[in-house]
């Protein structure tokens, strides 16, 4: 019979794999769609607006309901919530693959976002409740490297499916990791922990969802309908009022989805502000680069997906090490330098010309961007969650992930404004400049706001 130490090691390994795969599924479908957008547009119709909606329909429900996931985990248990999220994600993926028109595709993407919202917070909460001390920082680094790799693995796999088969199969890539994760949950055999007094704030969830949907609708559709249209200023007004009402409700609710008191903790508030700038830039850059390489530079989907492969390799090789170093010397240096390096990588994209050459115009930017991303993500996650006591790690993770998804949601919704309605070379340049600016601000925010843990804690 295995001793306690061996059992603990086995449990930790299983927990880490469950957390990685469950989160990977959610991140994968957030990125795999980018490389399929031109093919979706060719088959189902629509322009840049349709492409924005295919991305943002997922992010609206994901960003709004990821906060609810923390409460659901308290009510029903993390394992149950993970299982429901995985099964729901798989069913929605099949529905998307069979969608006959853009409207149903967008609607099913919204359903998929609901399921995805159940996955990431519960996964990180499992890590935070299982690992302690330096092992926790290293585990977060490993989780970060494996899950963030989905940012590039998704487009690579998606490109192969688009070129060799059909874009519809892109949405079925996650079937295998979903099945493996469900099996690992059975192998883990952990008993669920539930809070008998926990409640779900459905009113807050509705306010948040309507607020985000109304705001995003106005930002995306204003390019076609104009700001003078009642449909635009009306939805923007309703959305803004609902967002304000959501914040007010969180201030006075007995069991808030987003406890505003968390933001009194310096590293939590500064880390989430940095997250907003960094992840907004990441979403914008990922969409623009993948789509432009196909529609502007004329690359096939497979090569467009492979364009970011060096970033994946850098993340996989070094994220765990960076997580460990951050645990020893503190996250502030990494969170300052990383975004500034990524800003430099985004600026290098301004070397792209009509006579396109990937090796001299894009590859250097991808490598620099990958180095900066590796330096940033694990320390950022560790700084935010490390500032909160383990008992509240689930809600802290949910808030941070919501901030990241909402930032990406808004950035993608503003793409039409940033690019001038058309993603040509000039629009590509504009997006690169905005990406660099957002990253630079993220680095400055980290330098000013983040504080390293006391030496005694280290």
Helices and strands, with pairings:
Blueprint: H1 4-44, H2 48-76, H3 78-97, H4 102-117, H5 120-130, H6 133-148, H7 150-164, H8 175-188, H9 202-225, H10 230-252, H11 266-295, H12 301-306, H13 309-329, H14 332-348, H15 358-361, H16 363-386, H17 393-413, H18 415-419, H19 425-449
Task: Give the total of beta strands.
Answer: 0
Mean pLDDT over all positions = 84
CATH architecture of the largest domain: Up-down Bundle
- Residue runs with pLDDT of under 50 for 5 or more positions: 1-7
Rounded to an integer in angstroms, the radius of gyration calculated over CA atoms is 21 Å
SSE pattern: HHHHHHHHHHHHHHHHHHH
End-to-end distance, in Å? 35 Å
Number of domains: 2
Corresponding CATH superfamily of the largest domain: MFS general substrate transporter like domains
Helix content: over 70%
As a percent range, the share of strand residues is: under 5%
Largest sheet: none
Q: What is the CATH class designation of the largest domain?
A: Mainly Alpha
> Number of helical runs?
19
Q: Which structural class is indicated by helix and strand composition?
A: mainly alpha
Shape: globular
What is the name of the CATH topology of the largest domain? Growth Hormone, Chain: A
